[in-house]
Specification:
The protein has about 700 residues and is an alpha+beta fold. Helix content is about 40%, strand content about 10%. The chain contains 25 helices and 19 strands. The termini are far apart.
Amino acid sequence: MSNRPLTAAGRLVPLLRAGLIAGIVIAAAAYPLVALTGLGAKATAHATEQKTRLLTTALPAETSYVYAPDGKTVLTMFYEEYRQYTKLSDMSPNIQQAIVAAEDSRFYQHHGVDPKGVARAFVSNARSGGSQGASTLTMQYVRMALRDSATTPKEVQEATQQTSLRKVKEMRMALDLEKEMSKEQIMERYLNSAYFGHRAYGIYAASEIFFSKTPKDLTPVEAATLAGLVKSPSEYDPADSDQKEATGRRDYVLDRMSQLGYLSPDSAAAAKSEPIRLKLTTPPHDCAAVAEKYNSWGFACDYLKNWWSAQPAFGANRLERMDKLRRGGYRIVLSIDPKIQEAAEKNVGSKEATGSPFANGIVVSEPGTGRVKAMAVNRTYSLDLSENPQSSNPEAGPKVKANYPNTVAPLLGGGDLAGYQAGSTFKMFPMLAALDSGMTLSTSFNAPYRYRSAVYDGWSPSNASGAMTGQQTMWSGFGKSVNTYFVWLEEKVGADRAVRLAEQLGLRWRTDVDRDHASPDKAKKWGAFTLGVSDATPLEMANAYAAIAADGRYCEAIPVQSIMNRDGTPTTYATPGGIHREVAKPRCRQVVSADAARAATDAARCPTGDTPARGSCGGWSTADSVRGTVGRPVAGKTGTTDSTRSAWFVGYTPELAAASFISDPDNPFNAVGDGQSQIPIKAVSETLRDGLKGTPTRQFTPPSDAIVG
């Protein structure tokens, strides 16, 4: 007799000779084991071969973690199926033994399909009319892996539907899989794929959710409880008030462990005498689950989601990208700096002033990288709007809630909200465009109180004060925020050039009015652009001014410090040129010359009460307290709109750029008033002061003689 091991199909022969052949052939349509040895195997071989190869490499969906900058503090998680892949060596032998006892006692003897189990199931089903499945652990893993790797509803249905053809394919793939993978590998994959209830996918999640421990520390009683759940997570749920069914199932598993030699009879009896002691844990999910201690970080988390959904590196569309976030097992470290974030929270009064319709927010960006270092607003990040008052917008319905004290709206930018009119902070764009086109800081104009523009069809803007009338340069015009000087300057350089430059610095037009004015055929006539009639977000403005602080090098806003794949490697993307770069690395480009940016900074020192390196500010400025508060070289610009419906300040040092606003997000016509126009100035100057405390003072680089004029 040959000593060659029998195949799974070969092992059927003794069974068939034992008198089962007739019954199995008759029942082939309902239970297609025989198909493996005949025409069914041939019909399914080609269809399953490719999928079998896929299952040897495909890993189940895994939870993505979001960390604070220390890379250790978990802020929240994203998942559809809460799961963390765990190696078999990091699992207690108890759970491995318990799952074999509960689901497949001959796991280590068969080769993917258990002929004895199939025969037993057939006989039982024939006698009782039942539907025992006889699925081995390998077959169950095949089914779970096909389900988890499905990309369409049809594939999900094919992987889980109760049909003879599906069973044939499943058996064939199980046999093939065991030729490619060891029992240990299959066990590891199985325990990382199985569903245990309570959104716990895989043994790591189950151990944490039910017992608040790792799989390595599971006792026999705990392991038997979890293994018993796989058959029916809802029926045997130990978290139910009545644990009768769960206890009965656990005791069955303990008895089977004893019968298989994993536990002594005495140990099994002692284990069965113990009650099921749970220590339930609810893992955080999505941004609303950020711990109360880090509540304000919820807005940065929300920005992360919006940023992620726009990154081609994670898929072709928003749906694919968010699916990757929830299933890809990424390790994401936010770029938020705890020290700067704490300063921002304190200085916008987010803890004390959440009960105001006027949102006061701030965003801090890092020049040279675009990394967002702080996002804070006087709101509580929460989905619960039940205690919010009615919206201040008279056109809103009576059931529409206001955005305070609780909101998850992206008030700071990064989402689909248009933002707020930014006022004279926009004067930076025509000035920078003029400097980059060859004009000098000394460019002079005798600015009247009211200026009639021939270029803009007779439009006649005026200054905020008669004291602004007179000869102005870029230094004094910017420091005093002289409207008529900047309308004249915009005429010289071209409003369309200022608009295009703002776009290069990251601004986007989100309202129909702004898009219309910014269109190529109308931008040349958008004279009011320099007065900040367009909406912008603090995220955009902080990042645009950060580019000026970085000598004209614009870096896209980015909310992360690092993103790692589930295998510990950095997440990369392919550029149009085919170069692979890390997704979390800064993406920068030179937008204007370094000299033009340095010149703009020199003029921008005038509004803050700082002293420019080369020129004169003209005796006074709009925010002369900033330099004294920050205590180091600082540049920036104030901005208010008609009737002070909103007020802004954008300020920067060589190290940080910050933009703060105050406005009513629900009703832009609800004016904040002149009395609150100092709030953004205070927020920015104090945040820069506190955030930079203890760091060396850096100086701005002066502009060249050529651009000074």
